[in-house]
Amino acid sequence: MTDWDLRKLRVLRALEEFGTVRATAEALNMTPSAVSQQLSSLSQQVGVALLEAHGRRVRLTEAAHALLRHTDIVLAQLERAEAELDGFARGEAGRVRVGAFATAIPSLVVPALNTLRREYPGLTTRVHQAEASEVYDLLSAGEVDIGLSLAAQAPSGHDGRYDRRELLTDPLDAALPVHHRLASARALRLRDLAEEPWIYGAAGPWRDITVAACAQAGFVPEQAHVASDWKAILDMVAAGMGVALVPRLAAADDTPGVSLRVLRSDQPRRHVVCAVRSGSGGRPQTAVVLRALADAAAGLGGKIVHSG
Question: What's a Gene Ontology MF term here (predicted)?
């Protein structure tokens, strides 16, 4: 198979365009003898004559025109390849996989990826829902490139396998039945709910967060019902079966029959972090997605960070 030299093919293309060896040499900043040498070498390489005498000049043979038809296709394809590779270098193309816990997906991940789809159509993203505590296992296994988790679920700060940064602080609001006696109380505190029946999970991070928040407020919550799905929890609250702590990221304020109250003096919060494998944040595609997630977190503004 012929070992093609693109420089020689470009010289041939230029000769067809400019018509003479001298004009070709001027256009390519070469000497006429160098142009002739490149074309002679190319002719020997392909095994057919590419030039023929035409008076005091030379002109392209039929074989040369055939070769140029293929050359144009090759050069155009290489231009597309360069443009695509340039997109990889700038982070505008490639693939990034994002692992995230459930409540982070609608409020953070979806807005960020929608923006990326508009601004970087060559960038492919894939979402993997997982528990906050599982995200680091997915990162370690190479199954995701970016993980959204909770600071409380992160490995030790001395674990050098990951680079972490905080995205936002997510306040926890009290969810009460809309007709509850405290639904309209002024300056509701978490400890005001110490005698109420509570709804939270049997295990996992949300149980830990609820129990720890209540303990900090000075009481142990009475678990009246066990549930870990937010819709189930809120439906039970709306039915008057108990109260619950709800992260603001869960966007639970649309649930009929539920009054969400900001806990003014002792409001618990959870810290949402994003993590990457150590050193991988500098990959252009990963950096683009990290910026989009940070922008989505900043866009939540007062709804998340400043309320309460």
Answer: DNA-binding transcription factor activity
